[in-house]
Write a structure and sequence with these properties.
TIM Barrel; single chain; four-stranded parallel sheet; binds zinc ion; binds adenine; 336 residues
């Protein structure tokens, strides 16, 4: 099973680039930027990675991202993640980045986007990994701040495919961002949003109806509402599920209690993703491996999850077809 998963062609659809910041690289970049961390060693930093809820994690995640200063820093962070994609047979990835985490500290939008996109271009050539970008608005900030970010992104529109919504969910409903999502859609960005991670089903309804999202990040709490489940299926929206993130942030107590299989059985299109792998103890393949074991998923179910990852990506149909053909060939050889 492990080998089947390791070599399975797949896409990752829910990944925050700031959440890929491994402690080793974090210390290296902090050092070269002359920044002193409040942790004395890599081990001390790792010990802080124990979370009771989303906010607990976000506090540490924003601290870590605070050592990124130069375009080269953003390049190194992104390229290091893309190398991991190549090692895991992640053939395509849709990377979220949080411009406001950086622009609020005086780093320009240009520095962030140029570093990240240069790494993506190099990885396409050198690693044969495909990637696109999702610019995420921080929901704990105001809609006005999000509008400023949208404005800053316009000169770089050709490098960005979608807009997302992340950070502290409770108390920051999708409705707060209805206008900026409408404007983002007018600019040609595809809308997605975190919804139903800690927030209830009504936040998912708002994301569907007010933000017009084309994919749901997490979405766990959709199971609170049967009508919502039917609506998600009817609109053919996929959920980007992040099992190890859910256990790390106490959204789910134990992986054995995870509702991923139930979602699949109900007919909801789901995918497996790592969210913030440096903080949650596993890259995407580890998410597949641990979930397979906890929920006793079959090879056919793993194939279906990988297929969904390509099918519900934001790639053009012609690219999806190429990846799905690669996956189908792999599955027909390795299914038994
Ligand atoms: N930012 C990074 N990871 C996140 C998550 N799991 N939920 C909300 N915002 C995030
Ligand atoms: Zn996320």
């Amino acid at each position: 099973m492990k080998n089947f998963i390791k070599n399975l062609p797949k896409a990752e659809l829910h990944l925050h680039i700031e959440g890929t910041f491994e402690p080793e690289l974090l210390f290296e970049i902090a050092h070269r930027n002359g920044i002193t961390l409040k942790y004395n060693s890599i081990d001390e930093l790792k010990e802080a990675y124990s979370f009771d809820c989303l906010q607990d994690f976000l506090d540490i995640y924003y601290q870590g991202a605070g050592v990124l200063i130069t375009e080269q820093d953003f390049y190194d962070l992104t390229y290091s993640y893309l190398k991991k994609c190549a090692e895991q047979n992640v053939r395509h990835t849709e990377i979220m980045f949080d411009p406001q985490t950086h622009t609020q500290r005086g780093i320009t939008f240009e520095t962030v986007i140029n570093g990240i996109s240069r790494a993506i271009e190099t990885a396409k050539k050198d690693l044969n990994v495909s990637a696109l970008l999702i610019m995420s608005y921080l929901r704990h900030l105001s809609e006005e701040e999000a509008f400023k970010t949208l404005e800053q992104s316009i000169p770089f529109k050709n490098k960005i495919t979608a807009v997302g919504l992340d950070s502290s969910e409770k108390g920051n409903p999708p409705s707060k961002f209805a206008n900026v999502f409408e404007a983002s859609i007018k600019e040609g960005y595809i809308p997605v949003a975190h919804a139903g991670e800690e927030g209830d089903a009504d936040y998912i309804w708002e994301a569907l109806d007010l933000l017009k999202i084309k994919r749901i990040d997490h979405g766990n709490n959709c199971l609170q509402d049967d009508t919502l489940v039917r609506e998600i299926i009817q609109r053919d929206l996929a959920l980007t599920v992040c099992p190890l993130s859910n256990t790390a942030l106490q959204v789910v107590k134990d992986l054995k209690d995870h509702s991923l299989k139930k979602m699949m059985d109900l007919g909801i299109k789901t995918t497996i993703n790592s969210d913030d792998p440096a903080y949650f103890g596993g890259q995407v393949n580890q998410n597949y491996i641990d979930t397979q074991q906890a929920l006793n998923l079959s090879k056919e179910e793993l194939y279906q999850l990988a297929r969904n990852s390509f099918q519900y990506s934001f790639l053009p149909d012609s690219d999806k077809a190429i990846f799905i053909e690669e996956l189908d060939t792999y599955y027909s050889i390795n299914k038994s």
